[in-house]
From TrEMBL:
Gene3D superfamilies: Acyl-CoA thioester hydrolase/BAAT N-terminal domain, alpha/beta hydrolase. This is Uncharacterized protein. SUPFAM superfamilies: alpha/beta-Hydrolases. The active site is at 270 (charge relay system), 362 (charge relay system), 397 (charge relay system). Belongs to the C/M/P thioester hydrolase family. Residues 245-450 form the BAAT/Acyl-CoA thioester hydrolase C-terminal domain.
Length: 454
């Protein structure tokens, strides 16, 4: 506590006891205050952060710290100068240094990094969507950095913020029926709701957070595991489910009594793009729209049996490339020339609008080239009107819901040898792309899953 704050507390006590005796008007200074509005928010909500009652025209540093579910410390910091009235407003003022620069109301969140000395190759991903992330924000005096923290600039004020993927009232249901492994999120209220089938990539497992957030926006959303999950048929390193499985998942949504059977979309990232397009061209499956984020239009893994199993993902490493640090890049694997023709989706059969999102710095998939191929194929089939592309310079492979920090590199596997993969993307443009794509995705879904059908 600074002497300034201590005297302030004494003042407060004095005012309180004297105030009871006589209605004296005190003009004392109050301590600094840091506020966040709201302090409980969804992950995609912008939070207004303000610090006030600071010395005017002075340097201050804003900090964010949080622990992820594995206990690793993440942090960000930014240097501001207070106004003549002693305030900083992150929606109005520019950071002049630190984890980001410029006027970035949500920079303290998307610029989070593992704290110095932490584990290498971390990627921030929420497993338990029924609990929030808790962020501790604070303001200290001077322009300081993590290296000199503790020796200078003690904390002047702080505030805690909860950010959630799952809104109050959203129902979460673990689905283990008809052979399906997934989690269904249903918005509050009776419905019926439009729905999305939500697919991730070759990281495998069951990833729920995007679905939880989509349900918080009024869509029933079904996260479907298809690979690398203990409840699926083994072995863990191959895809052992095929068309029947994805069709079952689609029909499961169609038959659900809180879902509009004719308003279902499919969304996928990475290998999930291939699956999204494949599902949309299966006989008897007619989604209302597809959203593809950074991925191929064909299977990058051999499909020895066209219906189902794949070879192990790591079986064919011919097109893996490595940067100077030995980090693997999977981009070449999905270059259209490197995908076997029989593994490419029959794109000309698509009959619904497709939104294709491209991070131009994607080092993990040849997303631009695959978007080009899809666009050309649809045009040649007289279906060019179905295709919309959003393309972002400086954005990498892992385009996630907004304000999540980008993992440019992350740990891919530990055995037989530790291997890191380069996903690409630069902090600020990647964050801007996430914000823009999310807004446009929701608009696209609103049009094609909720819109009037004359
Ligand atoms: C945030 O503040 C709470 C309450 O003071 C504390 O329990 C928690 O450890 C803090 N988190 C970090 C990352 O410092």
């Amino acid at each position: 506590m600074t002497p300034w704050m201590r005297s302030c507390t004494t003042f407060a006590k004095l005012r309180c006891s004297l105030g009871a005796l006589a209605r004296v008007r005190w003009s004392s200074s109050v301590g600094p205050v840091l506020t966040a509005d709201p302090t409980r928010a969804l992950m995609d909500e912008q939070i207004r952060i303000r610090a006030r009652h600071l010395p005017p025209l002075s340097p201050v540093t804003l900090w964010t710290q949080m622990y992820c579910e594995d206990g690793d410390l993440w942090q960000s910091y930014a240097h501001y100068n207070t106004n003549s009235d002693g305030s900083v407003n992150l929606c109005r003022d520019a950071s002049v240094g630190g984890s980001y620069v410029g006027c970035e109301p949500m920079g303290l969140f998307w610029a989070l990094q593992p704290a110095p000395g932490g584990r290498e190759g971390l990627r921030l991903r929420k497993r338990d969507v029924q609990a929030p992330y808790v962020f501790n924000l604070s303001v200290s005096g001077g322009h300081v950095s993590p290296d000199d923290r503790g020796t200078q600039g003690s904390e002047l004020a702080s505030v805690s913020i909860e950010r959630w993927y799952m809104a109050p009232g959203v129902k979460r249901m673990e689905i283990r029926e008809h052979g399906l492994v997934g989690t269904l999120f249903i918005p509050p209220g009776p419905g019926p709701f439009p729905a999305v089938l939500d697919l991730w990539g070759m990281g495998g497992g069951l990833v729920e957070y995007r679905s939880a957030l989509l349900a918080s926006k009024g869509y029933a959303s079904f996260s479907l595991a298809y690979f690398g999950h203990k409840n699926l048929p083994g072995p863990l390193d191959t895809v052992n489910v095929g068309n029947w499985y994805f069709k079952k998942a689609y029909q499961f949504l169609q038959n659900h009594d809180q879902i509009c059977g004719d308003r279902i979309g499919v969304i996928g990232l990475s290998y999930g793009v291939y699956l999204t397009l494949r599902i949309a061209t299966l006989p008897g499956v007619e989604p209302s729209c597809c959203i593809c984020i950074n991925g191929p239009v064909g299977s990058t893994i051999s499909l020895p049996d066209a219906e189902a199993r794949t070879e192990p993902f790591e079986f064919n490493q011919k097109h893996w490339t490595f940067d100077a640090k030995g980090q693997v890049m999977f981009k070449e694997v999905s270059r259209p020339d490197n995908i076997l023709p029989e593994n490419v989706v029959e794109m000309e059969k698509l009959s619904c609008p497709v939104l294709f999102i491209v991070g131009e710095d994607d080092t993990s998939a040849a997303s631009t080239e695959n978007a080009d191929l899809l666009e050309e194929t649809l045009k040649a089939a007289d279906k060019g009107h179905l295709f919309t592309r959003l393309s972002y310079t400086g954005a990498g492979h892992l385009i996630e819901p907004p304000y999540a920090p980008n993992a440019r590199v992350s740990l891919w596997r530990v055995k037989p040898k530790k291997l890191f993969t380069l996903w690409g993307g630069h902090v600020a443009p990647h964050a801007a792309a996430q914000e823009d794509t999310w807004r446009k995705m929701l608009e696209f879904m609103d049009t094609h899953l909720r819109g009037d059908r004359g």
